[in-house]
Amino acid sequence: MGTNGSTMLAPLRQGLPPIDPAQVSSSASCSLPARYEAVRGARQFTRTTLGEWSLGDRFDDIALVVSELVTNALRHALPADPPREPQDPPVRLHLMRWPGRLVCAVRDPSPDSPGGTGTGPGAFPDPQGTAESGRGLFLVDSFSDSWGWHPLAGALHGKVVWALFRLGQPGH
Q1: How far, CA to CA in Å, does 82 sit from each of 17, 34, 35, 158?
Q2: Which end of the chain is less packed: N or C, by CB atoms within 10 Å?
Q3: Quick one: what percent of the chain has pLDDT higher than 70?
Q4: Distance between CA 71 and CA 108 in Å, rounded?
Q5: Looking at the whole model, is its pTM more than 0.85?
C-alpha cells in the first residue's frame, strides 16, 4: 500500500500489537459521531470493508467486537461537555489487515483504561463480565484472538483499544 498506509497508521503504532505497520496490506478508517447511532454506522462500515477484502464470512464475530469497542468508547470515553471543534472527531474506527491477521482499533479521547478500572495496558477489569462495562470487554475477549489498549503519545490525546483476529484458519 506504500507510504500512505503506514503514514495513516503512525498515530496508532504505539497502541497496536507487535505487527509491522509497513506490512499492512489493507486499511480503512472512519470517524464516528458522538451519538449511539455511531454503532450502526460502524457495523455498516465494517460490513462494507470486510466485503471488499473478501472476509464477509468473518463479519459476525468482527462486527460484534467492533460494536462493543465503539459502544465502550461512546459510553465511557467522551467528555460530558464535548468541545465544539468538529475537525477532530472524538471516536475513530480503524480496520487493518495484515497477511493472516485483522486488527480493529478504536481511538477515543479518554486516557482511562477500558471500562474505567484496571491497572494498565491490557488490564481486564471484570473477567466474569458482571459489571456493565465488563460484559462488553468479556465479549471482546471471547470473540477476538487477543485484545489490548494503550494510551496515545505526543500530540494525540486518549487511547486506542484494539482487537486482533487471526484469518484463514480452517474451522475458525
Answers
A1: 30, 9, 12, 14
A2: C
A3: 65
A4: 11
A5: no
